[in-house]
């Protein structure tokens, strides 16, 4: 005889519900947002949102035999360690920041304040700075100069927020309406934008499983945006993309007025992009023996391309007469020109003779003249991953790191920031200015105007 009792266990952000199979009970549980069946544990899993536990207790009443609450364990990462007056602890965080924990040392504080994006955390009583090897070495030198014992730790990353809904988590998952897809095609939005907008809009409409699409309004947009910030704990860029995907429906598909949806976010700590040195780029490219693979990474680095720009590069974009590469319909639907390296041109000519691509500069397996196939971003990531495995580089390097390195190396070679901004296709100069904080090469050669005065 099957048990008729119900067990409820609260584990951190989840509620685990064990109950006998009953169609009425299953319908009730499925009606709770994000409820899903956990096949491996044979329990129903619900988010521990305010009110969910109370709903279960009210519904099941006397049938509940167990209600167990497990307090979430606080990790050592959130506890400030005890540091003596002659010590300094540097902790690298998963968000590419360095926590600096030490006693009151005015000279050290004065130096930290000179580091870009340094910030005093009033709640935790420690300083944080962007992670870079250069800044870390600076702090080490200052610690030695001030007779402080320096120690360094890497914080274990912890998964923020709850997972995104998938079609498997919702009984009657709502897909993106055809009118939305048709309007994207009509306005000629890029493939990448379509890939971004569609799942984001589906996440929005499935966040309100009992609401019809026609009944969704500004209130729902604000509520969903707040959910992304407080529960899902997504990045600012993810939140902005989600709002843009929703705005597209209300403004473009339905023809409504433009509106601004704002949800206050916790202050975001700024981090600097990872950059490879010239020597590290040399190591990466030197390990690659495959001509096509070397040409792909060399093109990205030498021209400062995004991975999507490389994939969408047609053969005719290479202008060997003007030594330029024409980037069409890049981010923000903008065109631009970037430089064509002499060495890259030689490499591309060797590659072209061997591979004979049909339309795209770099094509995938099975590509034909009648149906040219673009190279995949996944394959490019694998090329870099394999190359890195054959070097001694330990920093986290991605394909986009090559673009950051291109900009930084141009700056180090004396190229004006305005030209770098144009080559990268940045709309805002402040985006480009971040590279001035990554390098200090050549700063020791700058002479103060005061030194030229006869005083």
From TrEMBL:
InterPro entries: CB, DNA_brk_join_enz, Integrase-like_cat_sf, Integrase_catalytic, Integrase_recombinase_N, Integrase_SAM-like_N, Tyrosine_recombinase_XerCD. The keyword DNA-binding applies. Keywords: DNA integration, DNA recombination, DNA-binding. GO terms for biological process: DNA integration; DNA recombination. Residues 171-254 form the Core-binding (CB) domain. SUPFAM superfamilies: DNA breaking-rejoining enzymes. GO terms for molecular function: DNA binding. The keyword Nucleotide-binding does not apply. Belongs to the 'phage' integrase family. PANTHER family: PHAGE INTEGRASE-RELATED, PROPHAGE INTEGRASE INTD-RELATED. This is Tyrosine-type recombinase/integrase.
């Amino acid at each position: 005889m099957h048990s008729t009792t119900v067990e409820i266990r609260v584990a951190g952000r989840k509620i685990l519900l064990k109950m006998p199979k009953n169609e009425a009970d299953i319908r009730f549980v499925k009606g709770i947002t994000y409820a899903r069946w956990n096949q491996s544990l044979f329990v129903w899993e619900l988010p521990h949102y305010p009110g969910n536990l109370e709903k279960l207790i009210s519904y099941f009443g006397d049938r509940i035999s167990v209600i167990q609450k497990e307090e979430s364990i606080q990790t050592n990462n959130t506890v400030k360690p005890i540091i003596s007056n002659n010590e300094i602890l540097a902790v690298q965080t998963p968000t590419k920041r360095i926590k600096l924990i030490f006693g009151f040392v005015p000279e050290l504080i004065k130096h930290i304040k000179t580091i870009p994006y340094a910030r005093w955390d009033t709640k935790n009583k420690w300083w944080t700075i962007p992670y870079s090897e250069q800044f870390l070495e600076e702090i080490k030198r200052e610690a030695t100069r001030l007779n402080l014992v320096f120690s360094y730790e890497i914080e274990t990353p912890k998964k923020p927020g709850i997972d995104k809904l998938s079609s498997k988590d919702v009984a009657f998952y709502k897909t993106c309406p055809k009118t939305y897809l048709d309007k994207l095609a009509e306005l000629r939005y890029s493939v990448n934008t379509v890939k971004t907008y569609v799942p984001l809009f589906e996440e929005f409409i499935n966040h309100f499983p009992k609401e019809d699409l026609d009944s969704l309004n500004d209130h729902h947009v604000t509520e969903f945006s707040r959910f992304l910030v407080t529960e899902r704990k997504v990045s600012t860029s993810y939140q902005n993309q989600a709002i843009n995907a929703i705005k597209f429906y209300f403004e473009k598909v339905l023809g409504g007025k433009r509106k601004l949806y704002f949800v206050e976010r916790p202050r975001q700590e700024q981090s600097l992009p990872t950059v490879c040195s010239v020597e590290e780029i040399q190591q990466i490219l030197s390990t690659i023996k495959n001509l096509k693979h070397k040409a792909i990474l060399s093109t990205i680095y030498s021209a400062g391309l995004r991975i999507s720009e490389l994939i969408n590069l047609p053969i005719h974009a290479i202008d060997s007469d003007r030594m330029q590469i024409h980037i069409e319909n890049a981010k923000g639907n903008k065109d631009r020109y970037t430089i064509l390296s002499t060495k890259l041109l030689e490499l591309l000519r060797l590659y072209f003779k061997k591979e004979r691509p049909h339309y795209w500069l770099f094509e995938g397996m099975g590509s034909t003249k009648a149906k040219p196939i673009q190279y995949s971003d996944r394959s490019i990531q694998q090329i870099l991953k394999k190359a890195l495995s054959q070097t001694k580089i330990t920093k986290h390097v991605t394909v986009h790191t090559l673009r950051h390195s291109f900009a930084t190396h141009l700056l180090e070679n004396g190229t004006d920031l305005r030209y770098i901004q144009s080559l990268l296709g940045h709309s805002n100069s402040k985006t480009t200015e971040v590279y001035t904080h990554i390098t200090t090469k050549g700063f020791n050669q700058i002479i103060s105007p005061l030194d030229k005065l006869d005083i």
